[in-house]
Each structure stands twice: as structure tokens, then as C-alpha cells.
Specification:
By secondary structure, the protein is α+β, with helices and mostly antiparallel strands. The protein is 35% helix and 31% strand. It is built from 15 helices and 20 strands. The strands form four sheets. The protein has a five-stranded antiparallel sheet. A five-stranded antiparallel sheet has the order 7-6-10-9-8, with helices on both faces. Strand 3 and strand 4 form a beta hairpin. The protein starts with 9 loop residues before the first helix and ends with a strand.
Amino acid sequence: MKKKKTAEDPSENNQKKSNEIHETAETESVKIESAVDIIKDQLELIMRSLSSGVSVCICHEDGTMEMIYANDRFYEQRGYTKKQFEKEIHHSMDLVYVEDIDQIGETTRIDKAKETFESVYRIVKRDHSIAWMRSRISFAKPDGNRYPLRIAITDDITSEQMTLAKIKEKDTFLQMILDNVGSGITASLLNEKSKDYLFANEQFYSMMGYTREQYQNEVKNLYQRIYPQDWDRVLNTSQSTRLLDKPTSIEYSVVCRDHAIKKVRMLSVNRRMDHSEQDIQLSVYTDITEESREEEKSKELIENLPCGAGIFDISGGKVTSVYLNHKYWELVGRRPDQADDFQIMDTIQLKDRSLIPMIIQKIITSRKEQECEIHVLHGDGRYIPLLMRANIMRQKPGKSMLYATYTSIEENVVTFRRMLPVAMETMMAASKDIFFIKDRALNYVCASRSFAMTAGIPDEKEIIGKTDYDLFSEEVADRFREEDERMMREGRPLIDYNEELPTENGYMRYMKTSKYLLHDSFRNVIGIYGISRDIS
């Protein structure tokens, strides 16, 4: 007899199914966790191999961020190990340079959670150095998560920023020069018979009488506006700049747009650009039209003098002849076309060369004409004595001009004048009377011991080179200067006149004084001789 099937209990079936589902879920969960672990391991390997720093933060409603992940490169960029960072730093924002906090903080706003940002900012590393960072920041809000995640991929761009800063500094400096110098500046490609324009600043166009647009439309190359007679000379100078690889300077005339003629000074230097076989010539132009007109007038004046005369450029510690008149060439027995054979200092006898810078310094200090005796090379090979009188003709920023005249001196006169101070020194040392000799510029050449004592100077040799203003009050020095200048102006001595002479202790001595003019063999005044006797 067959056994009847008993109806199954529904509650038992439900429990059985529930257990099966739970077992299946547990199995799936284990599988998922295993897969996640594998993915995390693989993701970690990827993160470690990245050259960028990677960080993930939870963004809370109050604006704070909680970092939940960072790769090793993130910590390295900041100069920390992971352990050091976790121990010493509350959050990575703490390392952001104070001036950049607001800029990078803007990216943490939750209302921008769907946007992607790139931010460049500075951080303070563990060793207190500053580093530049570029972060590409994005936000994600996984399903079920209340707060968005901030994901940042960061690169250290310190080297890049430093390079950009240097370039910007150079560009700014260059732009400042180009916009503010009073000179025209050009860059051009140097060819055999032309200089092809590459660049020019506004001052250059203005100097030539053009606007930028006019020049670019009308002028094909920089040589086009050079005065025809100067064309070959400028070309040769430009070629020399390239061959000698050093700066060169030349003065020449240019024809402006309105056909006016201008004189310019061009200073050029040649440079070979990277990855290029062509030379770039950089040139600075200065308008010297007015300066040239002044020089031409000066040349006219000195050409008509009955003595030798010259104009010299004394800028930069060098003495360079600008112009020497025909009388000078007669004196030295040479021709003007031999001027390039010698530098002006090379024509002066070696023992006299040191006199020139001394005289120049004395002129600058006293602002008065000075004179000295020099021996200059003659065309026959001997050195002849000349009396040189010089003064500053013109002083401008960066340029000073000297004017000098030359007259012949017989050798015996030179010898006498050189021996005179020695002879007078011996005589003056033995006399109780007050003696002195001044040169034409009214500087003391020598003085007696009694004169030195009266002036409060212990050694008469210390008087040499001084003036009355160095020895006496301004009131007394003015009186002496007025007397001396009147004597030289009128050509007459002052004999046996009474005067007061202050002493070292402030008392007055009453003196009977005579002053005489000293002349050379050409009757030129070369100084003053004075003698005083105490009549107190």
C-alpha cells in the first residue's frame, strides 16, 4: 500500500530558501571582497608607479577635508614619509603657502562637486623650502555616500616655475630697456650687402621720422636710409662686428623720411642664435646731430687759431683725439693722414704720459684751465717740448670733451723752468723774508720757510700745489686772488705796497710786498714771484 504524501510545512520551505539565499550572498560577498582586494592591490601598484602624487579626501559640509588615501609620491613631494606626515600634519592644506590658501580653498566648495579644476600653488615642505605644485582636482559622489570625494593628481612644477620666472624677469627687463631708453634699438639679419630688418623699438622709428607701419611698408633694409657716402664705411664696420666678435661703434649720417639729414652713433654686437647658421646683429642708435653741429663749430674755431689746438674725448678713462688743427700738425712735423698711425698718448714721451691724467683730474677738480710741459713725437723721430694748456670743453652724461692748445718751448726755457723751483727753494730756506712763486693757475710752486710758518704750515714743501684758499681765510684769499688776476690782466707788477697778513695765532702782521710777473722766452706769463718784508 502506497504511503500518502504529506503536505510540506510552508514555514520550513521559507526558512530553507532564506538559508540558501544567505549562503549564496555570503559566497558572493567573499568573492566581491576578494576581487576588491585584488583591485586595491593592483591600484596600489599603479599608484606607486605614477610620477604624480595622488590623494583622495572626503569633503565635509563644514568645508573641512578628511584624507582617506595618498600614494607614496604624494608624501615624497612634500618631503615626508607617510609615517611622518600622519604624525606631524593634521591635513595637507596645512602645508599650502599662506598667500595661496584662498586660491586652492576655492576648489573645496561642494557646490562645484561636478566640476574639474586645475590649480597652481605653493607649499612649504618639511625642510621649510618652497615648492610649486599643479593639481588637477575633481569631485565624485558615489551612490549612497553622503559626502563627495575630492580626488587630486599633483605634479611638482618647481623647476618649470623657476624657468618661467627667469624668462619673465628677462622679458620684463628687456621690455623696460626697449621702452625707456632714449636710443633706438634694432635686431637684423646681416647679409653681404644689406641688413634685413627683424625688429626695432619705437624710439628707432621716431628717430628716423617714421611710424612703425610706414617704416615696415617703405624700407626694405636698414642700409637703405644711410647717407650714400657713408654706405661702404657702415657695411665694413658691420662686417667687422661679425668677424671680430666684439662690439663696434661708428658715427654716420642717415636720411630721414622728410629727407632731413641726421647724424647717428651706432653701437653693434653680433650674435649667433641657437639652431641657426645666420648672424643676428643687435644695434643701439643715438641721435648725435646737435652734438655733431657743436663739434663742427668747435673745429672751425680752433682751425683759425695761430697755435696748435685739439679736441679730445676723455670719456671712460681714455684720451682719444677728435680733431687736431693744421697748426698742430705743423708743430709736430707730421700730416693729418698719419693720425691713425698713433694713438694720441703714444705720441707723448713716456716720462710725460702720467702728466695728462693728472692735469685732467686737476681741471675737473678746480674747473679751471691747467697747463703742463710735455714732449711730443716729431716727424723726424725726436721729441720736441710743447706747452699744453687744457680745459674741459663740454661735459655730458657718459661723455667729456677736452680742449687743448700747444705752443713750442725752447729746450733751455724748459730746463730753466724746471730748475727754478729747486734754486728758489734753496734761496727761500735761508731767508727770513717771505718769498713765494705761483704758477699761471695761481698754485704755489714753492715758498720760503718763513711764509710757511706764517700760513701755519710746518714744512714749506707742503705748500706746493696749494692755493691761497687752502692756506688763508676766504676773505684774505679773495684779496690775494684779485691782486694776482689784475696783475696778469694788466701785465704790470705791484711794487712796495702795504698789506696785512694774518699769522697762525690770529694776529696781523704789516708787510711791504712786491709781486712780479714771470715770463718765458716768448713773453708768455708763466707765473708770479712775490716777496714781503715785515714792517710791523
